[in-house]
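Appendix C: a fully annotated inverse folding record. The material below is reproduced so that readers can follow the format used throughout the book. The structure is listed first as tokens, followed by the designed sequence.
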């Protein structure tokens, strides 16, 4: 019996060797062909080194940015700040996902499915278990539980927002709970209760896991996040005492007139959540097409931001190079506060559209002025003294002060300089802070033009 078993194994090995396309050579594991593409709305920032910090006079005497030569790897960066329109896409995705989940759960509790119509059209896709494989049915029975995790929502059925077209009373019940109460509404308008718009995701603290040197299990480094993601529109009032900014509070985020303006009122934590969603949104599409996942979108490090802002100009004070904020034709080069109290001297009272003024040599708009921008780095006034010279990233995860760069519409010219550092607390939102995202460069397909 033992001889027969060994003979069978040898025969299988022989057949495998004969049928192999590798001819027994070490050719590497054969994966899918990687076809990278330039992310939409981003520009490639080539790898390189530069002198980070204040090579010019530090007029404010903050002494927190001594010069240091560093090198950064290649990455893509958004050519503009994330706009209201782009952030609204995130908010609407979260809103729609919550509505679909609530509809599916109620349909499940009522035992309704697509054959029943009405709210049944929004039942979980696995409601018809006759179409499930044995494996899928087992996984649902074992792991779905009362929280319904792991069950697929029906994304094919369009949501109905017109109250006169709600399909049945159960649909009305779900939608009614999404909006603020009658007592809180006025002028006959009931708006969505934005406190319900929460995004939940998980991420792994790779740096902490690597430094743990095998201590602890993998799950110890997986972090769960859940937070409200609607921008804080009250910042337009709270940031400025004794100032009338109610129109900006009322209209800036949701009105189409401001769609192409940079989103504000977003905290560092909300910006991180947006990055996670953008990665998921792209990779869900990649998965549906049978393509390999792209790497994550994220906030830039402080060093990456400054390198990109300089646009390849060594020693430049501003993204356009040299030391003046007014061009040869007498026009301001960015949106900021040029003079004491005169916010409109540069033709803009508040923010301007994200593609305003001339871009720098990396084709990035408003790297100076308009809105300050969150970076991934924590703020430490002494960080330049100890950060690495390769892809530096200062501070620590427990430091709640996060670096913001670029200056804003309400700042004087000093804060527009590419080397000026500032910070804000990670859970704070301001009317003058926005963000843009980056993605690590992984190559481009040969002989394929880069499309926007």
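Designed amino acids, in order:
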């Amino acid at each position: 019996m033992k001889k027969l078993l060994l003979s069978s194994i040898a025969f299988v090995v022989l057949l495998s060797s004969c049928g192999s396309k590798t001819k027994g050579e070490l050719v590497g594991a054969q994966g899918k062909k990687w076809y990278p593409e330039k992310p939409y709305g981003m520009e490639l920032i080539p790898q390189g080194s530069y002198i980070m910090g204040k090579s010019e006079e530090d007029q404010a005497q903050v002494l927190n940015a001594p010069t240091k030569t560093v090198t950064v790897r290649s990455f893509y960066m958004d050519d503009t700040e994330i706009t209201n329109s782009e952030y609204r896409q995130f908010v609407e995705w979260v809103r729609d996902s919550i509505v679909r989940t609530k509809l599916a759960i109620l349909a499940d509790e009522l035992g309704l499915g697509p054959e029943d119509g009405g709210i049944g059209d929004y039942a979980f896709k696995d409601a018809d278990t006759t179409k499930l494989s044995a494996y899928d049915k087992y996984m649902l029975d074992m792991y779905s539980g009362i929280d319904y995790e792991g069950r697929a929502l029906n994304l094919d059925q369009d949501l109905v927002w017109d109250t006169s077209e709600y399909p049945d009373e159960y649909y009305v019940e779900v939608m009614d709970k999404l909006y603020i109460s009658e007592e809180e509404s006025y002028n006959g308008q009931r708006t969505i209760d934005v406190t319900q718009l929460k995004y939940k995701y998980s991420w792994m603290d790779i740096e902490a896991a690597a430094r743990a040197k095998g201590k602890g299990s993998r799950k110890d480094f997986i972090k769960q996040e859940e937070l409200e993601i609607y921008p804080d529109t009250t910042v337009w009032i709270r940031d400025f005492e004794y100032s009338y900014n109610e129109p900006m509070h009322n209209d800036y985020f949701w009105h189409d007139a401001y769609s192409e303006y940079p989103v504000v009122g977003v905290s560092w934590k909300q910006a991180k959540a947006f990055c996670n969603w953008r990665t998921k949104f792209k990779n869900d599409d990649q998965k549906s097409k049978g393509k390999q996942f792209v790497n994550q979108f994220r906030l830039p490090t402080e060093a990456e931001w400054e390198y990109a802002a300089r646009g390849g100009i060594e020693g430049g004070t501003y993204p356009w190079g040299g030391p003046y904020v007014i061009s040869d034709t007498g026009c301001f080069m960015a949106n900021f506060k040029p003079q004491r109290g005169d916010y409109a001297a540069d033709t803009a009272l508040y923010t301007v559209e994200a593609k305003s003024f001339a871009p720098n040599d990396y084709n990035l708009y408003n790297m100076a002025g308009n809105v300050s921008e969150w970076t991934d780095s924590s703020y430490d006034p002494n960080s330049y003294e100890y950060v690495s010279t390769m892809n530096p990233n200062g501070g620590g995860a427990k430091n709640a002060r996060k670096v913001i760069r670029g200056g804003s519409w309400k700042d004087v010219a000093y804060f527009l300089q590419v080397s000026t550092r500032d910070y804000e607390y990670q859970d704070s939102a301001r009317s003058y802070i926005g963000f843009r995202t980056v993605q690590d460069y992984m190559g481009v397909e040969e002989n394929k033009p880069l499309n926007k």
